[in-house]
Amino acid sequence: MLRILIFTIMLSGLIVRDVTVAKDSSQLSAADKAAIVTRFATEVKYNFAHLDNVKGSWDSICSARLPEIVATHSDEAFLDSLKLLCATLHDGHTAVWCNTPAVRDWPLPFFTKRFGNRVFVTDVITDSMIAAGLRPGTEVLEIDHLPVIDYGRRNVIPYLPSSTPQWSEFESFFGGWLTNGPVNRSVNVKFCNGPDSVFSLNVARDMNWQHNPYLKQTVSFRMLPDNVGYIKIPSFQQGRFDGNTFLEAYDSLRNVSGLIIDIRDNNGGNSLYGNAIMQLICTDTIQGLPWSSPQYVAVLQAWGQPQELYQKEGGKLVPICMETSEFAPFTAPVILLVNSGTFSASEDFAALFKAANRGLIVGTPTGGSTGQPIMIDLGHGYASRICTRNEWLPDGTRFIGVGIIPDVMVEETAEIFSGIDRVLEKALSLLPR
Fold first, then answer.
1. Which residues contact 132 (CB under 8 A, 6 or more apart)?
2. Which end of the chain is more exposed for a tag (fewer CB within 10 A), N or C?
3. Alpha-carbon radius of gyration of the chain
4. pLDDT tens digit string along 221-247?
5. Would you tell me how many other CB atoms lie within 10 Å of the CB of residue 36?
6. Buried b (16+ CB within 10 A) or exposed e, 193-210
């Protein structure tokens, strides 16, 4: 997705990156490319839940861009142009990618996170990078001789599936997104471990990870001062969310004076996990989120009648304490910590939490995207996911494309690497003594 030598030009409104490769490097024929684009465009037309929000006619957009996409001079450039077409949908749950090894993207062997206008290493994935001086808290100053924020805005944000500006500005610098690119290309990166320790490295995309950051994405909990419990849920992904650990945390923290649940940086997974947590921490019936999905009835099209959305009210969630005496009602005040990396299933959880009025939400606006994607094989190793479901709060408030707005806004800072968490500190101050 990213390139080493980059500039942007405008061709009929389409941004194209210079990948400095030979003109005959394409393995796909023009007919192959046209078939892939047409399949994607058609699947979007009938499955995409937010097509009404697209500016202009989707058919017209695809028709206008098709000649430029088909004329791309390499498979990498074709994938870039396909991503740019997808980005016009402005949806974080709709994306395209390629599984072919020669075209597939891969990150550099470290992960990052943005704080304000600075970017820091959060995880070092290979021993060679550790030996070179990288550690959590190492600052990234430049990538390929561009200031890191400029690099991300030029070469990541335009290609990132996104429903909101806050998600674009967060996710483009989070995890491996910032350094994602062709496996066979190295990148020059300037780092800083302090004023007297600035160094540059040519970093290869080493796929042999010795330290997998995803293994850290497990539920953790601890006690804070004043008998306040704290639970961190970094992921709702199946295999990363440990329900048994959460129940252990819940049992251990049952007699706390207050509880803080932290879903910052949680990119989602399975919404049923969040539903189960709500059933543990609530004492009143919880109204689920209403939703809609496109549906197509051929005879209505033949009669010239409008197609109606399939709509359904959210089901009610019954607290576990109302169903069994094994779980006493949990009545302690609860505060939820969120940020712009709170996304998808974790955003569903934040939406339920807000709708149930269970407690304060503290942090920054969430990513503003959730839904149920359908997976589409586009052929030739290319694939896509398309969001098929729209959701909103029970009172009609829209949060997709907006985000869940916290009750108390607090920005995260790089002081987190020194053990100072300003968002958590604020949450603690808001709990009753």
1. 199, 201
2. C
3. 23
4. 999 999 999 999 999 998 899 999 999
5. 25
6. eeeeeeeebebebbeeee
